[in-house]
């Protein structure tokens, strides 16, 4: 953290500026009062420093509402302080100021020029000080003797060593009137309120004890003496103790009304319900009679005694010594109520930024605590407990995912990113380190040059085959029949399952998922495959049940109904190029175990809604089928792998709950993101609630905020989630598996790009994993052409026939009209 430092009369000075503050509701004043006293108390340990709260008002006399009040906390180090204390104190102060009750947001001043302006904002021609009120002790009067012979006189009881010293009242939360009074001035005004931790000297203790013991015996019935003694005696045991001063400065004369308003804000009178209340809540304005002391206190940011005093020699400092409750009056920070805070910038961010707790800083960084330079990260062990990110578009969700995935890539982990929009993948391509270029596997169906092949039918083990077939059925339900209305149904599921098993079983001519429809619509292909069946269960369906079903009058309609679910995919050249290949060019087991980087661009603009979702489902299925094979590996050999899915609800099925429940034991951490919480099915919400360790919420809409706030806990209000600024999030973390209270985090900007170009990464992936698109298209069209009487064979024969006929038809027997006209025109030109 960079900290600007300036030296004034041998003292080093730093500053923290108030950037914004939130509005306080009616339930907060007592909490603010207690926490502000706690802040002051926490400063007790910095005995080598003084702390000045500065209100600098730049009024606009013609338009008061346009005036500005700049609030800062200036920290001055005593001459003996070590330079390395600067960072320590700067960090401590910003944590205290931005901590509970979470009202203010301060930032360290890093610019030297900005600090210089803060230290010398005006020409302090006119100064005034506000100090405790003191007065000579008014002696109590004895009542006159009643009856005959009474003298009728009252005899005063003088107390030559005793004087009255008022205490400052309890901290007032009303700074609105003080702000308004400052903004109403014609010239700038600077108010500096300084406190410095201190203690009574040995001499002060001895003098004070002697005074109290001598005067106390006769004070039982004298109210003013009793109140004065109580105030003085309190000094003996009051801890912590602070020496304080308040100086007001302006180029123009200071009005009495302004000083009165500031005085009443710093010293709120209290009811006289007990003896000490008689001397509670009093101040005195000290003007030009103490000019030298006032200027020293203003310029040096010290606690130079101003205002003289009535104390006996050796006790002059008592007038300026305050306990934490009184010192909180001078450590005055503005508070915005329901009527606002004139001159101050209000912050609509939630108060959660003030929560102080131990948060992780090692791992993939998600940002820093709002208003503080304290990074917050999630290490890879906690990421294996999964992460859920939700937020409206444009709030910074993609940038957050970019930074997390980039951190994993830089750390050498295996990563898969499934992006329905394409921008995230493109940004990641620009951030691949040079040493990881060969690890990148890019699946971009819109690539017109070369694409990898992903064959859903292929399975490395029997367990994988069963999983892929079952999960494909779930995929079709998710795509076409999410509410289970019978659009897919058991009959469709049976036909598809048996067809996939048939294509996987007979590999004489390798087929793909897109060939499922061909098996049912092309009798020759079906006969070719069924003649090679050696599995009795497959034979039962294909040689028994299916031929019998074809004798039904509705057989043709059933085939058409079944094929219709596949036509939307078969007619897409981009999708067909990837999942229509007969053999996969990438191994998902290698992606996991070799810690590769699988980037999947599912841009809906290039593919369309259904094609994008289908390919996303296929990638998730194939990857998770490889994950399940990790059962055969020892737990310590399962390298961490991180799967990112944006708009995950579009490419996952009901098996998501199983993935979340079992992912950690397989060494796979999921980061799932989407825009709307209420668009998730109830079972999906329950799966997230029960299995996700880290929840990150950017700004939510009014429908989402109440449900998600309830999920986060009582500390978060729905309206706080719905008014988050961009690039801010509320995080519920679980470091070490132990949940923390939600905190407000300001996310990082996009991480730096690498020196490697995206085109270089794309080219390397094409060369390693891709096949030419034209070659893929030819193979798909002619896959079944070798099967006699198949539709593909007939189409090939027709193409071959046209190839032979077209040259003969293209040679005209006599010149065309256009060629004759050109020839004649040329002859005419030659005659000229």
What is the CA-atom radius of gyration, in angstroms?
40 Å
Strand count, sense and barrel status of the largest sheet are: 11 strands, mixed
Query: Overall pLDDT, averaged?
Result: 84
Question: For the largest beta sheet, what order do the strands appear in spatially?
Answer: 14-13-24-23-22-15-21-20-16-19-17
How many helices? Answer: 30
Total number of β-strand segments? 25
Shape: elongated
Distance, first to last CA: 87 Å
Percentage beta strand: 15-25%
Low-confidence stretches: 141-155, 272-277
Q: Which percent range fits the helix content? A: 25-40%
- The structural class is alpha+beta
Oligomer: single chain
Structure commentary:
The protein is α+β, with helices and mostly antiparallel strands and 832 residues long. It has a domain at 6-140 and 158-330. It contains 30 helices and 25 strands. The strands form 4 sheets. The chain has an 11-stranded mixed beta sheet with strand order 14-13-24-23-22-15-21-20-16-19-17, with helices on both faces. Strands 1, 2, 3, 4, 5, 6, 9, 10, 11 and 12 form a 10-stranded antiparallel beta sheet that branches. It has a two-stranded antiparallel sheet with strand order 7-8. Helix 4 packs antiparallel against helix 7 (256-266), helix 13 runs antiparallel to helix 22 and helix 23 packs parallel to helix 24 (682-691). It is elongated. This is DUF87 domain-containing protein. Residues 143-163, 794-832 are annotated as: Disordered. Residues 383-540 form the AAA+ ATPase domain. It comes from Nocardioides immobilis.
